[in-house]
Amino acid sequence: MNTDRYISPLSERYASKEMQYIFSQDKKFTTWRKLWIALAETEMELGLSADGRPRITQEMIDELKSHAKDINYDVAKAREKEVRHDVMSHVYAYGQQCPKAAGIIHLGATSCYVGDNTDVIIMRDGLMLLRQKLLNVIAKLSAFAKQHKDQPTLAFTHFQAAQPTTVGKRATLWINEFMIDLEDLDYVVSTMKLLGSKGTTGTQASFLELFDGDEETIEKIDPMIAEKMGFTACVPVSGQTYSRKLDTRVANVLAGIAASAHKMSNDIRLLQHLKEVEEPFEKNQIGSSAMAYKRNPMRSERIASLSRYIMIDALNPAITSAVQWFERTLDDSANKRLSIAEAFLATDGVLDLCMNVCDGLVVYPKVIEKHLRSELPFMATENIIMDAVKLGEDRQKMHEEIRQMSMEAGRNVKEKGLENNLLELVADNPNVPLSAEDLVHVTEDLLQFVGRAPQQTQKYLDEVVKPVLEENKDLLGVTAEINV
């Protein structure tokens, strides 16, 4: 382990091995070689010739394929020190391993042929890994929501006590955010296209020269390359690069996932403060170096922390896209190397944390009921008024009586630190025809105050979430390993 230089915490602490591989040097440069093979094969299959003889032979293709993965990094690195050009350095290194094919590697292409096409492939692969993890977060939350759909709990607006809901219904709000992210991700993946091989300014002039002006043949190059690389199409027009708006779209998907995760993690942190719901806490975990009793929501806090980084990072591709000059400028390169990779690695870490948290959420029904019952007299005032009206009382008169007593009970709680005694005040009020026994009946069934929350939860899980999970059942069952 190198301890004398900076190491990204994204790789050391947060991102999975799978996502790190997608953004690794091996993935990048083996993809370059696959693209060079695809280009050479396409040119051979389209009959590229020189002096009446095939310019590219099957023997050359076989030689290229035989060294598709054993990259001679030392040669490429030494060469780049001389020529200061990463693509030409790897063309040279590949040619050293493939002397018969050395002269046709990268034929007709510009650097963005390997650079941009590889970026699209890597982003697609990264999105597909995130998609699997997103589905597993949704699945774990769905199980949680189903289990607790009938557990009444105090709901909040403005973090002030509001009409009750259920623990499961609240979880569907988290699920719905992630379902929106899944829709966005699927749409972006479905529209992703390779750059193809467009040449230095997107005009394919080099291929017009290679194929002696045969435009019908040139039209076949991009579709053939796309098929060989597992895509349905290449972009219809471009300068030297694919539009950097694609990076913006991808980054916005990641930022959306981060926003959903952040919202959920905030709710969990607040609920843990209330001692109602708690994230997993391991047997030997230490909450504080000073306060031995502490059980801090460190995973949820980490979700929030990384999510903020991802959301802010999404500005990078948007600004980069806006400032591209004409057909090509290189002020995107250094920024892209950081912003895209780090957004993916951080989002991967966030979803691993979400899976871990959602897999082990702990609910404390007794605390939840205690908090709910402390506020329930206020929630029950409308029911109390209606019951009094049924006994012949004037609705407006009852409303004013209950309002006055509610204010008194509120003062007792806030100013004197007493329990909420509204029901006792009502029972003792001779103007309200309800006894203490009547009032117990009004508040004993907590589920009567949650509206359709249980039914809404079940309906949402059955009609919206379940079909998506069943369609993707082969991707479920993933668990996340948290490094620290």
The main sheet orders its strands as 1-2
Overall, the morphology is: elongated
* Percent in helix: 55-70%
**Would you count the extended β strands for me?**
6
The overall pLDDT average reads: 93
Q: How is the quaternary structure best described?
A: single chain
Q: Structural class of the secondary elements?
A: mainly alpha
Biggest β-sheet: count, sense, barrel?
Answer: 2 strands, antiparallel
Strand share of the residues? Answer: under 5%
Question: Distance between the terminal alpha carbons, to the nearest Å?
Answer: 17 Å
Number of helices: 21
Topology pattern, helix = H, strand = E: HHHEEHHHHEEHHHHHEHHHEHHHHHH
Low-confidence stretches: 288-294
Radius of gyration: 31 Å
Task: Tell me the layout of helices and strands.
Blueprint: H1 9-14, H2 17-22, H3 25-45, E1 49-50, E2 53-54, H4 58-66, H5 73-83, H6 86-97, H7 111-147, E3 152-157, E4 160-166, H8 167-191, H9 205-210, H10 215-218, H11 221-228, H12 245-273, E5 277-278, H13 298-313, H14 315-322, H15 333-358, E6 362-363, H16 365-379, H17 381-390, H18 395-416, H19 422-428, H20 436-443, H21 453-471
Antiparallel strand pairs: 1-2, 3-4, 5-6
Helix pairs in contact: 3-4, 3-7, 3-11, 5-6, 7-8, 7-15, 7-21, 8-12, 8-21, 12-13, 12-14, 12-15, 13-15, 17-18
